[in-house]
Amino acid sequence: MFNETFDMPPSTDMKPEMLALIIILSTFSILGSIGNALATFVFYKVRDKSTAQIFILTMSVIDLFTCTVIIPFTIVVEYLLYDIKYDIVCKLYQFLITSKVPLSAFIMVAISFDRYFCICHPLRRIVTPLRMKIVLVCLSTFACCLGIITCLAYGVYREASVPSYQISDANQARIVDGIGSKFLDWRPIVDEPLPSNDVTEVVLSYIRELLNKKNASQVISSISKTDQIVYIGICSPNNLILDFHFLNVYQKFYTVLFVVCLVIVCILYGLIYRFIQIRRSKKLHQKLVLCSYMNGEHGFEGTRLTLLNGGDEEQQQQQQQIKAEKDSVSDDESVKMDKNKNTEKRSVSSFTYDADKLRDETRSANIKTAVMLFTVTVVFIIAFLPAWLMAHKFIPTNIVVFYMYFSYNVANPCIYAFMNPVFQENLKRIFRRS
């Protein structure tokens, strides 16, 4: 997660909070695994997937991986207070947590572009399933690069200035005999009690002797130090591979990246809303014009109205056929007409009416899908905003509230269940078969 890019969690006693965190994350993991497994299975079975269904399937796979791997991993890391001990495990955790989050944000942006072109520019065919798959691969690669940079900045080793104590040969021999040659290994655990033995007394007596002769600052300054890579066992930022200056710049870039994604999403959905409002205004204006024709004095106006709203039996059958064809296709892609349609000759006015109706139904279906995916985006923003604010010190840190961003991965299947007819129908079929 972006918050943990460079900041360690607070070291205060959080036992009640830790218990609550474990219970909440465990619940998220169980419920999210079940819901996302169903969503992944349902959308994987859909043939001729539209671009929206490809995005939903991708999000379901990411959410399933998060609930089955990343959330349990987070529980263990938090329970151990980041005392992971193994460098590879530390880097793996940081990679997973910091590549998954930006990938979700990137997908939100891609979805907003998809909905914008499907609703506002449906005839341009800019967004296709093949192009969306290529975009997803590129976004995943970029997110992995961000995760790699973060994992290289973390580890259980750190470069530190270690004092080189000048102890007599006799005492140094006793130290080596007592605790081995790794006397200078350093691990900054303050509350770890010192062992009570002869070797410790040798070191302490030497320090006391120095303190009796000089003040503390002189003693510290008189001790020579050497820079060494020391093992601390705590998964934390270090500058062994990447310089801290670079990490600070990277953190700012990481922060701006989420702001840019949020702005793009808001702009695109704003344009979609504006397009819908303009179109509704035009339709309302057309209805008012028709009403004025109906009450007019010119004969051609009545004739035009008859053409548009013809009541003959053939036209009604054609309307019902179009509606049946529309209901048989996906709710979020352009309608694919049946090749075995009735080929009888129809009037130009009837064909125009059918085409307009078909286009309106398709746009209405795309709008419904856009509303569902916009809901997913809103949930994403609400879930991640507190953690983002805590990560950048805008609000006080609360570990339970912080990890509530995982609720986003659990909420998505619920949104599909309530707002996606394809998911509902396929889910009913699964339970009927079982």
UniProtKB/TrEMBL annotation:
<keyword id="KW-0472">Membrane</keyword>
<feature type="transmembrane region" description="Helical">
    <location>
        <begin position="56"/>
        <end position="80"/>
    </location>
</feature>
<dbReference type="Pfam" id="PF00001">
    <property type="entry name" value="7tm_1"/>
</dbReference>
<comment type="similarity">
    <text>Belongs to the G-protein coupled receptor 1 family.</text>
</comment>
<dbReference type="GO" id="GO:0004930">
    <property type="term" value="F:G protein-coupled receptor activity"/>
</dbReference>
<feature type="transmembrane region" description="Helical">
    <location>
        <begin position="369"/>
        <end position="390"/>
    </location>
</feature>
<feature type="transmembrane region" description="Helical">
    <location>
        <begin position="253"/>
        <end position="276"/>
    </location>
</feature>
<keyword id="KW-0807">Transducer</keyword>
<dbReference type="InterPro" id="IPR000276">
    <property type="entry name" value="GPCR_Rhodpsn"/>
</dbReference>
<feature type="transmembrane region" description="Helical">
    <location>
        <begin position="402"/>
        <end position="423"/>
    </location>
</feature>
<feature type="transmembrane region" description="Helical">
    <location>
        <begin position="92"/>
        <end position="113"/>
    </location>
</feature>
<feature type="compositionally biased region" description="Basic and acidic residues">
    <location>
        <begin position="323"/>
        <end position="343"/>
    </location>
</feature>
<feature type="transmembrane region" description="Helical">
    <location>
        <begin position="20"/>
        <end position="44"/>
    </location>
</feature>
<feature type="transmembrane region" description="Helical">
    <location>
        <begin position="134"/>
        <end position="157"/>
    </location>
</feature>
<keyword id="KW-1133">Transmembrane helix</keyword>
<keyword id="KW-0675">Receptor</keyword>
<protein>
    <recommendedName>
        <fullName>G-protein coupled receptors family 1 profile domain-containing protein</fullName>
    </recommendedName>
</protein>
<keyword id="KW-0812">Transmembrane</keyword>
<keyword id="KW-0297">G-protein coupled receptor</keyword>
<dbReference type="InterPro" id="IPR017452">
    <property type="entry name" value="GPCR_Rhodpsn_7TM"/>
</dbReference>
<feature type="region of interest" description="Disordered">
    <location>
        <begin position="316"/>
        <end position="343"/>
    </location>
</feature>
<dbReference type="GO" id="GO:0016020">
    <property type="term" value="C:membrane"/>
</dbReference>
<feature type="domain" description="G-protein coupled receptors family 1 profile">
    <location>
        <begin position="35"/>
        <end position="390"/>
    </location>
</feature>
